[in-house]
Every structure is written in structure tokens, then in C-alpha cells.
Design a protein that fits this description.
The N and C termini lie far apart (about 115 Å). The chain has four helices and 40 strands. A hairpin with a 5-residue loop joins strand 21 and strand 22. It has five domains: about 110 residues, Cadherins (Immunoglobulin-like); about 110 residues, Immunoglobulin-like; about 100 residues, Cadherins (Immunoglobulin-like, Sandwich); about 110 residues, Immunoglobulin-like (Sandwich); about 90 residues, Cadherins (Immunoglobulin-like). It is elongated and about 150 Å long. It is mainly β and about 575 residues long. The strands form twelve sheets. It has a six-stranded mixed beta sheet, with no helix packed on it. Strands 1-3-6-5 form a four-stranded antiparallel beta sheet. It is about 5% helix and about 40% strand.
Length: about 575
């Protein structure tokens, strides 16, 4: 029994040992040779490891004081469903020529199990630049590309030789910008071709420089001086500008008020535009568009400076301008094409237009105005919130401001309405019909208020505070009565006496009721008598007079309840 138990315990120990992560035999870095002039920050090795329990991701590190000061580890993405994990080993400080460095590399799985391997690095007298030239028969560190290059185009290609230590072909990796990728194919038994492909459109004005990094795993090296399994270099994609963007106005005042003292030849305003293409901008020329515009003969646009000047008298201009109407001009900014080509792409424009509005002196800012100074509307009492007031002729619920631009924008609000009403719209540009609606119907009670009054305020928004121009209109709201009150008797109980031998027509009692509603809603009619022997009495519907209905009535003291009285309801 003891022998069997010991055997089981030994097997269990072997099983646990087999579950530790394992370095790939080809990437253990046991004997690494690196040229001594390799630049700090360079990736000098790609380590790889697996885990039979799939306790991913794996984490690589370098152990020991010497290793931690010399190297830095950059773990690569390794999701849980991976079959292998990798990391880049980077040089953290300059190497000392011919020195041997000893350190430990480690890999740890997600459960904390760790494997260590001893490693060495020798700084050889070789040249890192020569190593790059040997591994890459063709490479470039700068790619120039015009911004109108089509998506999918090949920008440049690179050739890399494979390592002579194994049969694997070298594999190229491109990083730095997602709009580029490297497309690979074999260019021979020992050479791989990698083409840089454009994936998205370029725009010089948005970004004109893309720093990238090209790396090759398992490249050719002189193993006596260099046993690195990854070589790389920085390259840059420089985007060159093409004429594909029209000019842009950076100064073109949309509204300008002419001074009253302006004379022919005086400066009105100045516009300024620049070429939208920043790499090789063209000069700009300015002009006025004359087609169909009666105002352009009164002005001159300086072609090179963008200065707009008045060339005829202000009185002549006033004679053809309608009151409260601006003078509208269209100015064009056009690129100067010296090479005889309109643009690199005929679809792209070389000119831009802008609209200018000139306000003549004397066209002062005016306040808003209502179509009527006073409004009368009606609304039934107890109208629910949201009910609109009814404005009938001659009252037109309209307000306007003839000023242009911000001077014609004004707000509408109510004054002294106690929160009973609200107005829409609240902000108007130019003109609009307004609607007043019930907001709170608490005061819409005809028996308390037959009429409500308030004001509508129209106030320009371009000048805050007391400086803003405004106008008001008074509103009278007539509240119409509705049948919302029941009649009320003047007494809760009426007591009357009569002889049991009374004859038909004998008055018994006089009742009286009133209704606070007005008009037909306030008229009262007496309709019925309820109770035992009610057919022995008659009720006048207009006067409320209660009388004996017939001679043979059934009023008899001997049969009255309690021998005293009869009770009726009206």
C-alpha cells in the first residue's frame, strides 16, 4: 500500500511541474549577440511562450539588477483564447563594447506559475546599421505621397531576407497608424516582399506626417555578431499638399453700417481670404459679382488688397434702395493659377464667394411693432390649460421688426397676467403670428372676474438690459359665463299650514331659488314635488307657488304621519 501511494504522489508532482508556462526553445535568449552601437529603445528580441493549461495571458519580465537596468520588456496583446504569447525585449541603456551581460528571463501565467531561464547578451563589435542593410536589400525611411492618392494604392515596398538558421521566412510588421498596412508575398526562396498599402483617404490639412515603425521577425543576420530575431527601423509617411481646397474667407464682415459722412473713394470694408491648401498656397485675387445686382456699379473691389470702396454718392445709392432694406453684395476670392492648370483635380474649386450686407446711414435700429396696439379676446370660464384665446377682427395677432440681423430678433413675454396665460413663440426673427394660451385657469371664473387685462412685451435681444428697444400691446380678455353653478333655494326648509278642507287653488307655500350664472344659464324653473300624496299639490314652474291641486285632495289630519304633517321635496 505504501508503495502505491508513493507512486501516485510522484505522478502528481510530475503533472504539476508540466503545467508551468514554457519558453519557445527558439526564443530563450540563452546566447544573444547584439551590435554594441544598437540604439537605446530598439527592440532587440521577440520572446515567445506557451502554457498547456491555457492560463493566458502570460506575462514576461526580466529578473536581476543587471537585467532590469539593461532591458525593458513590452508584453504584446494575448487574449485568453490564444495559443501562444509574445513580448518584445527592448534595450534600456547603451551597451559596453565586448561586454557579456548575464540575467534571467521569466514568464508567468494567469495562475501565478512562473518559469525562469538564464540568458546572456554579448555586445559585439558589429554594426547595427550594417545589420539593417544586410537584412533589408530594399528599404526606405521616408515615403512621400500626395494627399489625393487613392485608397488601396501601394505607397512603397520593402524586401527582407530570411534567417539562415531555420526555414521560416521573415515576416514584416507595420505599426504607428491604422490607415496603413503591410501586404506580404514571397519574392524568392529567401526574400519576402512587403508593400505598404493605404487604407483610408489622406488630407494634408488634417494631418501631413505619419510616424511609423517597420519590423521584421526572423530576418537574416550575421550570427557571429548578431543573433537578434527581430530587426526594425522608423519610417515616416509625409503627405504632400495638392490644390484640392478652395480659398477660405478669414475676414468678411456679414453686416456693415455705412457712416453718414462717407464719400466717393472712401473705404467701406476690407475682406481677406487665404488658400485652403496650406502646403503650397496660391495668391488670392478679389472681385465683385455683377450679374443681376444693381448695387455693384456703386462700389469697387481692389483686386489684390480686398478693399471695398464707394465710388458714387450716397444719395444716388439711396435713390434705388428700398426703406429698411440692406445693400447686398457678393464678393469672390479666387486663387491665382500660374502653371496653366486649374487644379490637380478638375472637380476641386479654386474660388469662394461671400455675401456682404451694407446698412445705409439713417436706417437706424427700430423697435418691434404690433399690428394692433390693443387686443380683445374671449375665453370660456374654466377653460383647460392649453386653450387658445380667440382674437377676432379687427385684431390681428402679429408682431414684426423690420431690422436686419440681430436687430430683428426679439423676445415675446407677458406682463401682469398673474401666470394665467402664456405666449408662443417666445423668440421671433423678423415677424410672426403669436398665440396666447391658457396656462392656469384658476382665475377663469366668471362669477369672480368677468374680464382680465395684461400686456404683451416684445423686446429686442441684441441689447441686454434697459438699452434694448421694445414695444407693448394691451390685451383685454372677456371671460364668458358657462353653466357651472346649480340653483340654490333661499331656505333649506319651508314650513306651511293649511286647512284639511282647503279647496283647489288654495296657496300652501311660496318657494324661491336663484342661480348665480348669467343669461339663460341663470334662469330657474321649478320642476317637481316629491313625496307622499305629491299629486295633491301643484307647483308653478315660474313663480315657485305651491297650491292645492284639487278639491278631493287626500290631506287628512287623521291619516297624517304622527297626526301632524306631511313632508315634500322640491
Amino acid at each position: 500500500m505504501l508503495r502505491v501511494v508513493c507512486a501516485v504522489a510522484l505522478l502528481a508532482a510530475q503533472q504539476v511541474a508540466a503545467n508551468y508556462p514554457l519558453f519557445d526553445e527558439s526564443t530563450k535568449m540563452r546566447v544573444l549577440r547584439v551590435p554594441w552601437d544598437t540604439r537605446v529603445g530598439t527592440v532587440i528580441y521577440r520572446v515567445r511562450a506557451t502554457d498547456s493549461d491555457y492560463d493566458y495571458p502570460l506575462s514576461f519580465d526580466v529578473q536581476g539588477r543587471t537585467g532590469r537596468s539593461l532591458l525593458r520588456v513590452e508584453n504584446l496583446p494575448c487574449p485568453r483564447n490564444s495559443s501562444v504569447c509574445e513580448a518584445n525585449v527592448l534595450l534600456a541603456k547603451p551597451l559596453e563594447k565586448s561586454r557579456l551581460y548575464q540575467f534571467t528571463m521569466s514568464v508567468r501565467d494567469a495562475q501565478g506559475d512562473q518559469t525562469n531561464v538564464e540568458a546572456t547578451l554579448t555586445a559585439t563589435p558589429g554594426s547595427s546599421v550594417a545589420a539593417l542593410d544586410t537584412a533589408f536589400p530594399r528599404y526606405s525611411t521616408l515615403i512621400m505621397v500626395p494627399e489625393n492618392t487613392r485608397v488601396g494604392s501601394e505607397l512603397e515596398y520593402f524586401l527582407v531576407r530570411k534567417s539562415n538558421l531555420h526555414a521560416r521566412h521573415a515576416y514584416l510588421e507595420l505599426s504607428g497608424a491604422p490607415i496603413f498596412r503591410v501586404k506580404q508575398r514571397l519574392a524568392g526562396n529567401s526574400v519576402s516582399n512587403g508593400s505598404v498599402i493605404l487604407l483610408e483617404e489622406l488630407d494634408y490639412e488634417r494631418q501631413n506626417l505619419y510616424p511609423l515603425h517597420m519590423a521584421a521577425t526572423d530576418p537574416f543576420t550575421n550570427s557571429l555578431e548578431d543573433t537578434r530575431n527581430i530587426l526594425g527601423f522608423d519610417l515616416a509617411v509625409v503627405v504632400s499638399d495638392v490644390q484640392d481646397t478652395p480659398p477660405v474667407f478669414i475676414q468678411a464682415p456679414s453686416v456693415t453700417t455705412l457712416p453718414a459722412t462717407i464719400r466717393p473713394g472712401d473705404l467701406v470694408l476690407r475682406v481677406l481670404a487665404e488658400d485652403g491648401d496650406k502646403g503650397n498656397p496660391r495668391e488670392i485675387r478679389y472681385g465683385l459679382l455683377t450679374q443681376g445686382n444693381p448695387f455693384t456699379p456703386f462700389f469697387r473691389m481692389e483686386e489684390t488688397s480686398g478693399e471695398l470702396r464707394l465710388i458714387r454718392s450716397l444719395d444716388e445709392l439711396r435713390a434705388i434702395v428700398k426703406p429698411n432694406t440692406p445693400v447686398v453684395l457678393r464678393v469672390i476670392a479666387e486663387e491665382v493659377v500660374l502653371d496653366g492648370r486649374q487644379a490637380d483635380n478638375p472637380e476641386h474649386l479654386i474660388s469662394t464667394e461671400a455675401e456682404l450686407a451694407l446698412i445705409l446711414p439713417g436706417s437706424a435700429n427700430t423697435p418691434p411693432r404690433f399690428e394692433s396696439e390693443r387686443y380683445v379676446a374671449s375665453v370660456p370660464e374654466d377653460s383647460p390649460p392649453g386653450t387658445p384665446l380667440t382674437f377676432t377682427e379687427p385684431w390681428v395677432p402679429r408682431v414684426r421688426d423690420d431690422d436686419l440681423g440681430l436687430g430683428g430678433v426679439f423676445s415675446l413675454s407677458l406682463l401682469e397676467d398673474n401666470g394665467t396665460f402664456e405666449i408662443n413663440p417666445s423668440v421671433v426673427e423678423g415677424s410672426a403670428n403669436f398665440i396666447v394660451r391658457v396656462k392656469n385657469n384658476a382665475m377663469l371664473d366668471y362669477e369672480k372676474f368677468q374680464m382680465l387685462s395684461f400686456k404683451i412685451l416684445a423686446k429686442e435681444v441684441n441689447q441686454p438690459g434697459n438699452g434694448a428697444l421694445s414695444a407693448t400691446a394691451s390685451v383685454t380678455v372677456l371671460i364668458s359665463d358657462m353653466n357651472d353653478n346649480a340653483p340654490q333655494f333661499s331656505q333649506q326648509t319651508y314650513v306651511a299650514t293649511m286647512q284639511e278642507n282647503a279647496t283647489a287653488g288654495t296657496p300652501v307655500a311660496q318657494v324661491h331659488a336663484e342661480d348665480v350664472d348669467t343669461g339663460v344659464y341663470g334662469e330657474v324653473r321649478y320642476t317637481r314635488i316629491l313625496g307622499m300624496m305629491n299629486d295633491s299639490l301643484s307647483l308653478d314652474p315660474y313663480t315657485g307657488q305651491v297650491s292645492v291641486a284639487a278639491n278631493n285632495h287626500r290631506f287628512d289630519r287623521e291619516v297624517a304621519p304622527g297626526g301632524l304633517s306631511f313632508n315634500f321635496f322640491l
